[in-house]
Specification:
One of its GO terms (molecular function) is isomerase activity. Its EC number is 4.2.1.59. The protein has one domain: Hotdog Thioesterase (Thiol Ester Dehydrase, Chain A), CATH 3.10.129.10. Helices cover about 20% and strands about 35% of the residues. A hairpin with a 4-residue loop joins strand 5 and strand 6. The two termini are about 25 Å apart.
Length: about 170
C-alpha cells in the first residue's frame, strides 16, 4: 500500500485536482464546481464488505450550490448524475491512493437506483464505495465497486458494479 493518509480534507482534494497528490499523469479529481465531495473520511485498499477496499466521503449541501438554480427552476434538485459522478470520482481516487499509475476514467455502471432527492434543505451527502474487485495487471488497472449515497442519513442512491480504470495513455 501507499504512504498516503486514510483521510483527506478539501485542500488535499484540490491538490489532487491540480495533479499534485498522485503526480502528473495519474488519478485526478475534477476541480470545483464538478468536485462532488468536501472531504474523504476513510479509505482503504483492504477494508469494506468484501475486503477489497473502500472509501467514505462527505459533501456539504448549501442552498446556493450551482446546480440548484438551473436544474428545474422553481423546483431545485441536485441532478442524480452528479451523485453517480461523485461515486466514480471516489472509485478513481482510491486507485490513485493505492499508488496505481494512470489517468482515471469511468467505464460504466451495472445498476443505478435513485430513491430520493437532494434539495437545498439537505445538509450533507455521505458517499460509500465498497470495492468488489481491484485489478492491476500489465494491461489493465481497474476497480469495480458498489456504492451508496445518503442524504442526512437517508439512502437515496444505490449503484452496483460501477467500473473505473486507469490508463497511462
Amino acid at each position: 500500500m501507499t504512504d498516503f493518509p486514510r483521510s483527506f480534507d478539501r485542500d488535499d482534494l484540490l491538490k489532487c485536482a491540480r495533479g499534485e497528490l498522485f503526480g502528473p499523469g495519474n488519478a485526478q479529481l475534477p476541480e470545483p464546481p464538478m468536485l462532488m465531495m468536501d472531504r474523504i473520511t476513510d479509505i482503504s485498499g483492504d477494508g469494506g464488505e468484501h475486503g477489497k477496499g473502500h472509501v467514505v466521503a462527505e459533501f456539504d449541501i448549501k442552498p446556493d450550490l450551482w446546480f440548484f438554480d438551473c436544474h428545474f427552476p422553481g423546483n431545485p434538485i441536485m441532478p442524480g448524475c452528479l451523485g453517480l459522478d461523485g461515486l466514480w470520482q471516489l472509485t478513481g481516487f482510491n486507485l490513485g491512493w493505492r499508488g496505481w499509475q494512470g489517468r482515471g476514467y469511468a467505464l460504466g455502471v451495472g445498476e443505478v437506483k435513485l430513491t430520493g432527492m437532494v434539495r437545498p434543505d439537505r445538509k450533507m451527502l455521505t458517499y460509500y464505495v465498497d470495492f468488489t474487485k481491484a485489478i492491476q495487471t500489465r494491461r489493465l488497472t481497474m476497480g469495480v465497486a458498489d456504492g451508496r449515497v445518503e442524504a442526512d442519513g437517508e439512502t437515496i442512491y444505490v449503484v452496483k458494479d460501477m467500473k473505473v480504470a486507469l490508463s497511462e495513455s
